[in-house]
Amino acid sequence: LQEVGEPFKEEKAVAKYLRFNCPTKSTNMMGHRVDYFIASKAVDCLLDSKWAKAKKGEEALFTNRESVVDYCNRLLKKQFFHRALKVMKTKPDKDAKKEKEKGKAESGKEEEKKSKKESGKDEKTKKEKEKKKDGDKEECKKDETPGTPKKKETKRKFKLEPHEDQVFLDGNEVYVWIYDPVHFKTFAMGLVLVIAVIAATLFPLWPAEMRVGVYYLSVGAGCFVASILLLAVARCILFLIIWLITGGRHHFWFLPNLTADVGFIDSFRPLYTHEYKGPKADLKKEEKSESKKQQKYDSEEKSDSEKKEEDDGKTEATRNLGTEGSGGERHSDTDSDRREDDRSQHSSGNGNDFEMITKEELEQQTDEGDCEEEEEDTESRPSHEKS
């Protein structure tokens, strides 16, 4: 009898905590808007509450999931919530019949179209199309990586109906809230509104200074709102006048962001905007585009010239290195090398490497050769004597 009777303060506190902290969803049930929750989420919510933590000298109210289920059964019997049944919505028979008829009509039309088409199509083209389709399917499968977002799955609609077996079970069971306490925020807002209404009705009883101050404030607020409305109308009239006089070439807006979806300060800036939309504007745009293109070409040419200069500098450096190396080699040349160079120059200068020689010239050359041999012998003899 105690369980079926009125709830205790502790039970009300637990139900209130569960009502405002457990995630809920709203739907229609029997023509009424109701809020429902899932049993497993309610159990998780209570296990994270203060009643699942032991106090000094007291045991915790919720120690495991079974204890939470037992307590929720008590709340269910005291009609804080009741169990509901999910019933998936099915399409009526009329809609199904209509869809079948549409499908039959479409299939008949397709068959007629196919019969009208040329029957003498090659099988090769069909096979090629099938191969292309298979290739496209394989590419699509390759492109589908695990990071790519999938298409949204269509959620099936359902409706709630009262369940015959009113028992709290831990799982995906649905329970509809009957207990609907007033939240503290809504209570505070309602209290403020009530006080404001009472204060407004007692306006004649206010002190004279307060009434004068409220009067000036209300007049100032009214003038401010009226000035904004007048500005909004005036700016449109000004735009139309300028647009008509200039034939649609000049677009002048005073306070362009006055009616835009921006903040209070941003709605007053910039002060005005002006746009010229005429033939010269198009020419200017073309000139700007051409100047940009020329700048790009100039920059490319500059980069090419810089590259050429760098290449020239490298070649000059290599030449200088080569000249320095050749100078060192020249210093190290021997007298024999110089003689050979002279002989080669003499032979190349005459250009007669193969000439007819007379007997007298041969005798002179042989005499010179003998003299050179004698000189060598004389030079070698004193050296042997000295040794």
Structure description:
This protein has a five-stranded antiparallel sheet with strand order 1-2-5-3-4. The chain is of the alpha+beta class and 387 residues long. A hairpin with a 2-residue loop joins strand 1 and strand 2. It is 60% helix and 10% strand. Among the domains are: 107 residues, Arc Repressor Mutant, subunit A; 66 residues, no CATH class.
Which helices and strands, and how do they pair?
Blueprint: H1 9-21, E1 25-29, E2 32-38, H2 39-47, H3 65-77, E3 81-88, H4 93-116, H5 123-143, E4 158-162, E5 174-177, H6 184-201, H7 208-245, E6 250-254, E7 272-276, H8 279-331, H9 335-350, H10 359-386
Antiparallel strand pairs: 1-2, 2-5, 3-4, 3-5, 6-7
Biased composition (Acidic residues): 363-378
Transmembrane segments: 187-208, 214-245
Keywords: Endoplasmic reticulum, Membrane, Protein transport, Translocation, Transmembrane, Transmembrane helix, Transport
- The CATH top-level class label of one domain: Mainly Alpha
Spell the H/E element sequence.
HEEHHEHHEEHHEEHHH
Sequence of strands across the biggest β-sheet: 1-2-5-3-4
Strand content: 5-15%
Q: Could you describe the largest sheet, including whether it forms a barrel?
A: 5 strands, antiparallel
